[in-house]
Structure to design on (158 residues):
């Protein structure tokens, strides 16, 4: 579906978040499963050229400066269910264009009452489902009636 997207029309998205437990913002390597998944989804991602092989830890300020204008952010942060949860991690996240436009997504579409996330069970075993989710987020016209399995928009807490 994304093979025909011209290079100059590919989105550049922000991926992951600053991890307090790892004290870094991990940028996926282009040759990792995430890097190849994003390539298949038809997008580039912030600082990907700085992570050609392996996932690379970056400091917050580097990613902050590079990612401020990214139109879409996929945060992948465990336990983050709302924008408020994300902003509680760091109030500077509010500065990102994706936060201002409501285009922030998390992989928590199938979380059970105990916090178990099916993304890490069935999702990683079925990358085709993850890929469809990502394509539907990045290029919704390509899958107009698709309902996401794992990735859902982070919304303000009620």
């Amino acid at each position: 579906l994304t093979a025909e997207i011209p290079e100059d029309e590919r989105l550049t998205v922000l991926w992951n978040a600053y991890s307090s437990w790892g004290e870094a913002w991990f940028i996926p390597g282009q040759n990792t499963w995430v890097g190849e998944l994003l390539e298949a989804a038809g997008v580039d991602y912030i600082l990907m050229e700085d992570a050609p092989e392996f996932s690379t830890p970056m400091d917050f300020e580097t990613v902050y400066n590079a990612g401020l204008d990214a139109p879409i952010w996929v945060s992948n942060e465990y336990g983050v269910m709302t924008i408020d949860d994300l902003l509680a991690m760091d109030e500077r996240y509010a500065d990102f264009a994706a936060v201002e436009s409501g285009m922030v997504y998390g992989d928590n579409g199938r979380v059970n009452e105990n916090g178990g996330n099916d993304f890490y069970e069935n999702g990683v075993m079925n990358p085709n489902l993850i890929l469809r989710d990502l394509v539907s987020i990045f290029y919704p016209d390509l899958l107009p009636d698709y309902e996401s399995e794992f990735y859902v928009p982070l919304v303000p807490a009620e």
Summary: Strands lie at 11-15, 18-19, 24-27, 43-45, 56-58, 73-74, 104-106, 152-153. The two ends are 36 Å apart (CA to CA). Residues 24 and 59 are 5 Å apart (CA to CA).
